[in-house]
Amino acid sequence: MPPPLNALLVEDSESDAQLICYNLKKAGFELTWERVETAPAMQAALEKHAWDIVISDYNMPNFSAPAALALLQRTHPEIPFIVASGTITEETALGLMRSGAADYLMKDRLARLGALVNRELNIARVQRERTEARNALLESERRFQILFEQSPYGVVIIDCETTLPLEFNRAAHQQLGYTREEFARLRISDYELAESPEEVETHSLKIRTDLWDSFETRHRSKQGELRFVQVYVQLIELSGKKVFYSIYRDITDLKRVETALRLSEQKFSTAFQVSPDTIIISRLVDGLYLDVNQGFTAMTGYRAAEVIGKTPLDINIWANPQDRSRLVEGLLETGEVKNLEAPFRIKDGSIKVCLMSARIIEVEGEKCLLSVTHDINERKQAEDALRASESMLSLIINTSRDAIGVSKAGTHIMSNPAYLSMFGYDNQSELVNKSILNQIAPEQRPQIMRNIQNRATGGPVSDRYETVGLRRDGSEFDMEVTVSTYRLNEEIYTLVILRDITGRKQADQKINQQLEELRRWDSITRGREKRIMELKSEVNQLLGEAGQPLRYASVGGGERV
């Protein structure tokens, strides 16, 4: 297949152009060509098409070979330029060649044109390949330099004999805190901590034998800080000299992360095993147990070997299976669930109520569930007992015939129905957050206020006393007060039990009046009985003097005659 040739002919003669084309085709080229005879036409042709060669006449009415060569040199200096003329002198031709023309020939010798073009195409190809190779080398060197300088790792080329750096990048000296000038004077042993100078020398000899090595070591920074470094070193030849091409990767932060991770794993493992709560790692999709802690065994009675590899359905641990559905739904929606209260069936068949918190985690790329379950069974029982106790206490308070009220710092908080009834109120809201002195008769309030103050400061107080109450309608009544205090959330509360003693007071007053009347009548009665006794004694005396039987028993209690 004939080689293709794209030829631009700068020629004012159509016939000469045809003759040139004839000779080029005869030489075996598959020719594509165009003829131009002015500078603008040549410029346009160069812009719209890629040409292999330019063949130009010397003299033309509106153009010339020197002008065409100058135009080509400015835009496409790599394209060979051949002068084909019938009148050019050798001296002129040589001048053009010195200006950049490839060659020249006379038009009466166009039979040589094909060989000349072939030669110039080969020369152009070789030059192009050399240029491309040179450009590729320069580009490669530029890329290497960029990689060398921009590498995040320290890159150092080290003299095998002296262990001094021959060349190094910015990261090499910056990661140890040195300036470029300072680092250039440092041997390996000046910053190497893991190996002594003798060990560094032995290691260097080993690398020269093995040709490469990769290892971890420790370097000392300019500030004296310990830096962990991953080193990759290879023995290479550079400009006829054996050198160590070394890459220093600072792994101090990685080491710290690894240490922190190791400590975290140890902490998790410790917390996992010693936690009294149940901790489970299971698959999210089906709940398959992957690991359980001692707390699980203590709470459920199952050993780890009995459940690992099984699902909750296998051991029927969820008393209500829909609770696990609620758990999974919550996890898929938010990624975690907190304090889900649910009953669980343990190994002996009994039910325990627990609080479960869980979060989705990844284990070897699979979504899993980390759950912590706290046994609240005893707490629930205590809460039930407390509720029962509170219910019973509420029943006692609300059905008590005694008035019961609670206050804090002299302010009313709550009261039972008997309290409201005693003072004539309809509901709690009429009393809450109001002073308890409102239910005390005005003349008694100073004493009650002193009792409140003494109780707050630890002064002398009486736990039982009598005072006068004041009803809502303004009427007063006597009442007995029993007081006790208790502390709740660092605050002191006062509990009072009140009894209306008006009836008792009235009864006591009536009894006292009756006793007084009894004492008065007793005094009167005792005087009359004494006189009767005297009269009886006189009658007995007269009868005795008359010799008659005594009529009355003796004053000492003798029998009647």
Summary of the model, kept short:
The protein is of the alpha+beta class and 561 residues long. It has helices at 14-26, 39-48, 65-75, 90-99, 113-150, 170-174, 180-183, 188-191, 197-210, 252-274, 294-300, 304-307, 312-315, 321-334, 377-399, 417-423, 445-457, 502-545, and strands at 4-10, 30-36, 53-56, 59-60, 63-64, 81-85, 103-106, 154-159, 165-168, 212-220, 226-238, 241-250, 278-283, 289-292, 336-345, 351-363, 366-375, 403-408, 411-415, 464-470, 476-488, 491-500. The chain starts with a strand and ends in a 16-residue tail after the last helix.
Distance between the terminal alpha carbons, to the nearest Å?
188 Å
| Structural domains: how many | 4
CATH architecture of the largest domain, please?
A: 3-Layer(aba) Sandwich
Radius of gyration: 61 Å
Mean pLDDT: 88
Low-pLDDT ranges: 555-561
**Strand order across the largest sheet:** 2-1-3-6-7
Number of strands: 22
CATH class value of the largest domain: Alpha Beta
**Helicity level, as a percent range?**
40-55%
Any overview of this molecule?
- By secondary structure, the protein is an alpha+beta fold.
- The chain has 4 domains: about 5-130, Response regulator (Rossmann fold); about 150-255, 2-Layer Sandwich (Beta-Lactamase), CATH 3.30.450.20; about 275-380, Beta-Lactamase (2-Layer Sandwich), CATH 3.30.450; about 400-500, Beta-Lactamase.
- The protein is built from 18 helices and 22 strands.
- It has helices at about 15-25, 40-50, 65-75, 90-100, 115-150, 170-175, 180-185, 190, 195-210, 250-275, 295-300, 305, 310-315, 320-335, 375-400, 415-425, 445-455, 500-545; strands spanning about 5-10, 30-35, 55, 60, 65, 80-85, 105, 155-160, 165-170, 210-220, 225-240, 240-250, 280-285, 290, 335-345, 350-365, 365-375, 405-410, 410-415, 465-470, 475-490, 490-500.
- A 5-stranded parallel β-sheet has the order 2-1-3-6-7, sandwiched between helices. It has a 5-stranded antiparallel β-sheet with strand order 9-8-12-11-10, sandwiched between helices.
- A hairpin with a 5-residue loop joins strand 10 (about 210-220) and strand 11.
- Helix 2 (about 40-50) packs parallel to helix 3.
- Mean pLDDT is about 90; it is low at about 555-560.
